[in-house]
Write a structure and sequence with these properties.
The chain has 388 residues and is of the alpha/beta class. It is built from 13 helices and 17 strands. Helix 5 packs parallel to helix 6 and helix 6 packs antiparallel against helix 13. It is globular and about 65 Å long.
């Protein structure tokens, strides 16, 4: 009997058929192919979306056995092991609460919630049902092999005592924004807590540290814009305008519990970028840097013997690095988004099957939500704030 014949199965219900729903669907398919260490084969059982025409089409295209337009039907199914929530973020809390009460393993995209009130409601249920060990949040940027390797190097002291951490996340959305849709306030879109939370999480994860205090600027960069595009022949000046409340820009200086100073920069006005996420870590004996624009390369400068030898060495991610048995057998072959998403699925499935707590769990992701809220508080108060 082969290992494949011994492998268990876990049934997946995916809620949401948008951008992230598609990425998750691909990862559920790829993970048992790419990852020999996965403890069970995911079975794409049910796809859910409130748009019936869309969910019918995408269930067929994405290889799901069934579909539904009402996620409550999933909760009643005894054959569903993992519920994967990929809906707009302001819907996460209620869906996750219902799934926890139904006894499911809950995998939720980030941001876990978009308001502190929703987070408090959700965490009350997590604790009441002792469910933290059956939760996972999709901070997928952690799963790049280079990010995992950087964390390992920091723990091993490869660049000495860490002094500074710089994280950046940039996009180009401002230059393409022509309208401000009504009711799209930060609490509904996620604002900084959506994309910016990646760098908040990545800093905390790589350094294996906690935030102590911070000071921040976080605010919109666009003026009032029309609430809709003009109809043919309509005077654009007659269309009402609305002000965005989404934090297009943020700059954070944080003191970590260990004493490390971290700076985090996020902008939606970087015209030349698509998604640009990167970090630098500076220690007493060298530096490490990485960019998502070239994710299979980690650069390190270890203590040079002389000033004439100063410079960075590029390390190509390969079989000797994290998730090395899940990628092609030669360094530099390259790892893409679909690969790191499949590594995330590997970790989620293994946590579900083994009973070990996934990192980041809901409890862990709640800490990130609180940091994002403190960033907003600092902007409002124009002062340093403590991170409780």
């Amino acid at each position: 009997m082969t290992n494949a014949e011994n492998r268990k199965t876990v049934n997946i219900a995916l809620i949401g058929t948008g951008f992230m729903g598609k990425e998750h669907a691909k990862a559920w398919s790829l993970s048992p192919v790419s990852c020999p260490d996965i403890l069970a084969t995911p079975v794409k059982k049910i796809l859910c979306d409130n748009d019936e025409a869309r969910v019918v089409e995408r269930a067929k295209l994405w290889g799901f056995e069934e579909y539904t337009t009402d996620y409550h039907e999933i909760l009643e199914r005894d054959d569903i092991d993992i519920i994967d929530i990929c809906t707009p973020a302001f819907l996460h809390a209620d869906m996750a609460i219902d799934a926890i009460k139904a006894g499911k393993f809950v995998f939720c995209e980030k941001p876990m919630v978009t308001t502190m009130e929703d987070g408090q409601r959700l965490m009350q249920v997590v604790r009441k049902y002792n469910a933290n060990g059956r939760t996972a949040v999709g901070f997928n940027k952690r799963r790049w092999p280079a990010v995992q390797y950087a964390r390992k190097l920091v723990k091993e002291g490869a660049i000495g005592r860490i002094l500074l951490y710089n994280g950046r996340y940039c996009q180009n959305g401002v230059m393409f924004r022509k309208v401000n849709l009504p009711n799209r306030k930060w609490w509904k879109t996620g604002g900084f807590a959506d994309s910016g939370s990646h760098i908040v999480d990545m800093c905390r994860y790589i350094l294996d540290d906690q935030y102590d205090s911070l000071v921040a600027r976080a605010y919109p960069l666009v003026d009032d814009l029309p609430v809709r595009a003009p109809a043919e022949g309509e005077d654009p000046a007659a269309i009402p305008t609305a002000k965005s409340e989404c934090e297009d820009f943020s700059l954070v200086i944080a003191n970590m519990k260990s004493g490390i100073t971290a700076s985090l920069y996020s902008s939606s006005a970087y015209g030349g970028s698509g998604e640009d996420i990167s970090f630098e870590i500076h220690g007493t004996d060298g530096s490490i840097r990485w960019s998502g624009a070239n994710p299979s390369v980690l650069q390190i400068c270890e203590q040079p013997r002389t000033r004439a030898e100063v410079g960075f060495k590029s390390i190509l991610m390969g079989p000797a690095h994290p998730y090395g048995n899940s990628i092609p057998p030669m360094p530099g072959f390259g790892v893409g988004v679909v690969d790191q998403m499949s590594f995330q699925v590997l970790e989620v499935v293994n946590a579900c099957v083994s009973g070990e707590t996934y990192n980041p769990s809901f409890e862990d992701a709640w800490e990130i939500v609180k940091v994002c809220d403190k960033i907003r508080q600092s902007e409002q108060k124009k002062e340093w704030v403590s991170v409780d």
